[in-house]
Specification:
The complex is a heterodimer of chains A (164) and B (214). By secondary structure, chain A is of the alpha+beta class. Chain A is 32% helix and 36% strand. Chain A is elongated. In chain B, strands 1, 2, 3, 4, 5, 6, 7 and 8 form an eight-stranded mixed beta sheet that branches. In chain B, helix 3 packs parallel to helix 4. Classes of the chains: A alpha+beta (164), B alpha/beta (214).
């Protein structure tokens, strides 16, 4: 099949979204299913067919989502309803919208130069419980309780750990 | 006007400490938040208002708890139930916000309740959590209830607040995202702006320019 001439191609837009919590490992295909489910559930099949969301890439804690030009607003509303991917809790924070992937990649590079997270691990005490530090970024510290049970992630700050 | 999230549930109700909530909320362009069952404070330039949520209690207990909370400076929220309860709760002096209208009966909030809310400067909360996490019939019902509340709001002009009911920083949403979500229930940009400043409106009601002295 020969490619369409540029004048007959659909115009697309790319949304750059940050994946939270930091350090979450996401399968691109699973994320695509989560986003499609959110779009279909919110807007229905007819609008989802127009938006045509697609996860183009997921790298460096960011995800690039493609849609038809003019449907960004609907897709952004639907993205805010994505709360989990394969039972892994997450949030997608939209950072920028652009017509090219390259400009968004540049944006990601700029963001990473601005605030390179300090890899820091170790143990600490919070509320008389031993916790394992998972991720640190500035004041923000994500910890996980040590043990076999109730090992869910807690979102704290350095002050919380120092004061406890 | 301060942009405020009208209810969050920090640790131990949720998995995020109040300081972390404040940090995240600042990044999402909020000025303050109401933290339920948490002492008031200010973290990193974000004002944390203490909130008291009264729910699943008979009217007598509600009156007692509201009386106790009245002098503490906390934002007092009452969970909505049937119509009679809601009218009584809105009429109580010291109640600031009626929450959870999406989960109450269809007739829980009518024109009489709306008039009482306007007279007593009590806000009705638009809880975004069912729009964010629910799917299908539950979300449709919430959208319908909120549209109904907003019809009364336009007629009687009682305050409206917006909350995410976040138990985790992952449940928080940016002001821009909230504007998008509120467009689902027919709120435009100005409505959302007013609703985000709704907590300030109920906590420090405007002083009337003219006072009638009998």
């Amino acid at each position: 099949m020969s490619p369409r001439p540029p004048t007959l191609r659909e115009n697309r837009r790319y949304i750059l979204a940050r994946i939270e919590p930091a350090g979450t490992v996401i399968d691109q295909k699973e994320l695509y299913y989560a986003i499609t489910d959110a779009v279909t559930s919110l807007w229905g099949d007819s609008v989802a067919g127009v938006i045509m969301p697609a996860v183009v890439a997921a790298e460096n804690g960011h995800v690039f989502i493609r849609c038809l030009r003019g449907t960004e607003k609907e897709l952004l509303v639907a993205l805010s309803t994505v709360t989990a991917c394969r039972e892994v809790r997450l949030a997608l924070r939209p950072v920028a919208v652009s017509g090219t992937m390259e400009s968004l990649r540049g944006r990601v590079r700029d963001l990473q130069v601005l605030k390179e997270p300090v890899p820091e691990t170790g143990e600490s005490i919070f509320e008389n419980k031993e916790v394992l530090i998972m991720h640190c970024n500035g004041q923000k510290v994500d910890v996980i309780e040590k043990g076999f049970k109730n090992t869910h992630r807690l979102f704290l700050t350095r002050s919380d750990l120092e004061n406890s | 006007m301060k942009v405020t999230d009208a209810a969050v549930f920090p640790y131990p109700c949720g998995d995020t400490s109040v300081r972390r909530m404040a940090l995240e909320v600042k990044a999402l362009r909020f000025d303050s938040l109401v933290a339920i069952d948490t002492p008031a404070g200010s973290f990193d330039g974000v004002d944390v208002l203490s909130g008291v949520l009264v729910q699943d209690a008979p009217m007598r207990d509600v009156i007692g708890r509201v009386k106790r909370a009245k002098d503490s400076g906390a934002v007092v929220c009452v969970s909505a139930r049937d119509n009679g309860f809601n009218r009584a709760a809105i009429g109580l002096k010291g109640v600031h916000i009626l929450r959870g209208i999406h989960a109450a009966d269809k007739a829980a909030f009518d024109h009489v309740a709306a008039k009482i809310a306007a007279d007593n400067n009590v806000a009705v909360d638009i809880d975004l959590s069912p729009l964010l996490s629910a799917r299908g019939a539950a979300r449709q019902r919430a959208i319908h209830r909120y549209r109904d509340v907003l019809t009364f709001e336009r007629r009687f002009e009682f305050p409206v607040t917006v909350s995410t009911s976040a138990r985790s920083c992952l449940d928080l949403r940016a002001v821009r995202e909230i504007t998008g979500l509120c467009s689902l229930i027919g709120m435009d940009m100005d409505d959302v702006e007013q609703a985000l400043g709704g907590v300030g409106r109920v906590m420090s009601p405007p002083v009337p320019a003219v006072r009638v002295i009998p």
